[in-house]
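User: Hey, quick favor. My workstation is busy. Could you predict this chain's structure for me?
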Amino acid sequence: MQVIEYGAVGVFDSGIGGLSVLQHIRQRLPDESLIYFADSGFAPYGDKPESFIIERSLLIADYLHKKHCKAIVVACNTATAAAIKTLRDAYPDTIIVGVEPGLKPAIQVSKNHTIGVLATQSTLQSTKFQTLKNRLTADTDVHFLSQACIGLVDQIEKNELYTESTVALLHRYITPLLAQGIDTLVLGCTHYPFVTDAIQQIITDSGAAPVQIIDTGEAVARQLEKLLGAASVTKKAAQSYQAKVHQPFFSMYTTGQLLSAERAIQGLLRLAPEDYQIFFASEVTPQIPA
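Assistant: No problem, here it is.
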């Protein structure tokens, strides 16, 4: 039986990467119902024009808004960089939380002030990222080494986390950073935490000194909790969910293949089929422009 979707937290990403953020939200806010939107039919965003990313983000936010989501988490670094201001302007009465590459947390833990940043090309070229990096560089003596990871999101979308081709990509992007002496590595895309084990193995095999890996999903969950608490909706919403559906629900919508989405949920979140529902978001799947 389909549950009533009302008052949930909406979470969206270009694909399955935002599930890494959703994991943290589920752990920190277990009484919240969640709707996840994977725009896998249009992934990755990292090689798309900013105007296209803004258009998709607005379409998805509108989709979640019509499902009465009380908050929207943009669980995509590329979409946050391109569209977060536009979304907040469009929905001023909705809590909207974005994700940012963890440059500030990285500064706090780095000892030699040499920090690697893995992200999509679009994120690294965005005005939002460049402004933050330049300001932090000017205010501190930290040296950021940015690396665009072309093709990595595609591999993770295919659930190829430990295949030879994925490991080869990671070697290509991480080895030069290790050679330059980084002691901290920022995962600047929400897809990348799913290959943390492979990244750690590469660092270990290289013989390099230990490297602190920064995943900002927990920080996003904390910020969401803070904003929901400030709006005094968390407890009331949880009680409302209990009255309507007896337990918090989790629904996933995708513009990609349903089977791939189901494999992602079962493989990455370790959920049983009775713990979620998956739907194809046909209303948000126009043809990709040439």
